[in-house]
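Folding follows sequence. Below is one example:
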Amino acid sequence: MKILVLNGPNINMLGIREKHIYGSETFDTLIQTCLNCGKELGIEIECYQSNHEGDLVDKIQQAYGKIDGIIINPGAYTHTSIALLDALKAVSIPAVEVHISKVEEREDFRQISYVRQACFKTISGQGIQGYVTGIKALKNKLEMYKGECI
């Protein structure tokens, strides 16, 4: 089983940016947390981050036929990117949307998520542990539907 953990703009600035919202854990800690979770669960984890929307779309498209599931934190593109939504729909890979902060308690514009339409689950407000929750949910979904079309 192989899962792609995809992070959008500014996620690489964890531990530096708005600590009162995103906490003090670093991006390196996030990556290591995901890799450790994968190792513990027997899942191959690939992590990717970009500040560029097209790079994220390319990575989703490249996942087709190679990746079993996607964990996606699109960052600010959550609220603006129909391109990411279309890419997720195109590849039809089971996906979980993850947000470090509680987006539902933040500014009005953050209440809109385009990618959510292509994800079977959304996790927010758990900090980087939300990625662990997402990986476990994705693993359970993939095992439940193994051999079937999801």
About this structure: Strands lie at 2-7, 44-49, 69-73, 95-99, 121-124. The longest strand covers residues 2-7. The chain has a mean pLDDT of 93.
